[in-house]
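Researcher: I'd like a structural prediction for the single chain below. Treat it as a standalone chain; there are no partners to consider.
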Amino acid sequence: MPPPPNQPPHNPYGGPVPPPQQPGPYGAPQGFPPAGHPQQAYPQHSVPPQYPGGPGPGPGGWGQPPMGPPPKKKLSAGAIVAIVVGSLVVVAGIGYGVKAGLDGVTGPFPAATHKLVVPQTVLDGEFTLVSDLSDTQGKEIEDTPDFTVKDATAAVGQYSGKDGSVLVLSGLYGQIKNPGTTRSSILKGAATDKGSKLVVKPRDFTPAGYGVTVSCQVTTSRDGLSTTTLPMCAWGDENTAAAVALVGAGEATADPKDIDLAGLAEKTAKIRAEIRKPIG
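Model: Treating it as a single chain, here is the predicted structure.
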């Protein structure tokens, strides 16, 4: 027999059957699926929904987002100075290693006609001198024996430009027997610095109107988790040789293959014209 009117249906397990909840103004009551749609478990390998401030993927949830490649940022000025100065110390070591009796090292030294200076500004005032390091870091260049250079004197300067750009000049002057080899060795020295990796091989440029060959390359340098792109150029003549590194925000984080080496070579030749002076 059907149950008496106004009485809930009989529950065979004891107690009345709870009446169905009425849908609220926003649809089915919380915790109950709509009629005719049984509640589904999460399919295998599916991602559970995210709740603001609650558990789930992402920050504050069950894990952190996957890490991307190491960030790029600009090396400190001190680190750039160390690399550029170190490149000339390696040059001196190479010259010492070949010694005076080997090919390309024999013969008289050229006459001393020019020197290098460390001016207050370079590139028509675009960069201003922060520190003349010729008598400090430069001493390491002068104190390393090199049979290919006579009476070597260091010229080292750190410069700053707008937007935090850093320009480092590291050079020497004296009487240089093999200027072409010296120019190549400077870049090799920078590429062999600890943590450095050569990513764009040296290329030779002859900027119009300057009468000098400039070689340029790009290395990357690691500092912790960050990697910095470091473009550098060098020249060598019978009296002077130097490396120039220019690192701005754009260069520091750029793809090494996108660096304008021809433009940097022209700036390097211009710097040479500004700092190379006749003796006397």
